[in-house]
Amino acid sequence: MVVYQDGPVTKNAEVVHPGHPAIIDTGLLVDKTAKLKSGTILKFNAAGDALQAAAPADTPIGVLAQDSDGINAEVLVLWHGMVVKGRLLDSSGANPAEATAAMTAKLRTAGIYPVQLFTSAKKG
Q1: Which of 64, 75, 78, 79 has its CA 20 to 30 A from that of 106?
Q2: Domain 3-118 is found in CATH 2.40.300.10
Q3: CA–CA distance, 14 with 21 (Å, rounded to integer)
């Protein structure tokens, strides 16, 4: 069954699309106390040794594949593959928001391909 997603979900949800083999591995957050949601678009910090939420002007490098717990700096990150476009988040501000089209498009340069469809009716 094909289901369309209209906007971001607020609970832990499927972000990685199963249509292409994904490369998911660990990454370290700059701030281990950050409670970021799955689907947050990530960038490297200035030193290039840790990850943080990307802002629209930044160059994204990955997508958070799980909610961060605010305790551990180590998280699962999608480094390559396909993601559900409607579940991508811009968490650079005080409140997470749906990632803009321009921000989403930048993921392609990192080898992450946003798609409109997903194959599960689970929405959160």
Answers
A1: 75
A2: yes
A3: 15
Structure tokens at 52: 């943080």
DSSP assignment string, the chain: --EE--S--SSS---EETTS--EEEEEEBS-TT--PPTTBEEEE-TTSSSEEEPPTTS---EEE-S---SS-SEEEEEEEEEEEGGG-EE-SSSS-EEPPHHHHHGGGGGTEEEESEES-----
Q: How confident is the model at residue 119, as a pLDDT?
A: 52
Listed in sequence order, the residues at least 6 apart from 31 whose beta carbon sits closer than 8 Å to its beta carbon are 52, 73
The Cα 68–Cα 65 span in angstroms is: 9
**CA-based nearest residue to 107, from 41, 26, 8, 55:** 41
What are the residue ranges spanned by the domains of the chain?
A: 3-118
Dihedral of CA atoms 83, 93, 28, 13 in degrees, nearest 10, equals: -40
